[in-house]
Amino acid sequence: MPNYLRVKCRAFFPPTCVLAAAISLGVLTAAVAGHVDSTPQEVFDSMRGSFQPGKAKGVHARYQWDLSGPQGGQWWIDVDDGKYKMGKGKIDNPSVTFVAKDKVWVAVSNHQMGGTWAYLTGRLKIRGDQGLARKLGEIFP
Fold first, then answer.
1. Closest CA to 93 of 63, 117, 51
2. Of 85, 83, 86, 75, nearest in space to 59 by CA
3. pLDDT category, 37, cuts 50, 70, 90?
4. In this structure, are residues 50 and 138 in contact, taking their beta carbons and an 8 Å threshold?
5. At CA 12, angle to CA 10 and CA 16, rounded to 5?
6. In this structure, what are the phi and psi dihedrals at residue 14, rounded to the nearest 5 degrees?
7. SS in 3 state form for 84-135?
């Protein structure tokens, strides 16, 4: 912890100051680390390069994204036993549907916002099979 924080923290509740410093550092790191100006289309394009066929073996899932906002739209991914197809628009009978604002999905995808946090705060809605929703992060890390 920097000295300027240590001096002020001694006078007040030390555990609270340490927590505040950690949160500040975490927020700063997240803001610098991600691609702040990415679009959802760029996120989906980058997902193509991260596909893990071994993790998708035996998985049969249809993922749908409904994103609102200026860069929003609909995208889908169909995972079928180690292979996938991806496109724009709607897919029939999705196993999982993600609903969020465009900027929220980009922030989650770029690790600027935790997916669990986005879900718990209502920024990200997940409809359908929660197990398959979690599997997406293994298939497209």
1. 63
2. 83
3. confident
4. no
5. 100
6. -55, -45
7. EEEEECCCCCCCEEEEEEHHHHHHHHCCCCCHHHHHHCCCEEEEECHHHHHH
pTM for the structure as a whole = 0.73
**Mean pLDDT confidence for 74-80:** 98
Residues in the chain: 141
* CA separation for the pair 36, 63 (Å, rounded): 24
Q: Average pLDDT, stretch 98-123?
A: 96
Q: How far apart are CA 8 and CA 13, in angstroms?
A: 10
Contacts (Cβ under 8 Å, ≥6 apart) of 111: 30, 33, 34
pLDDT at residue 17 tops 60: no
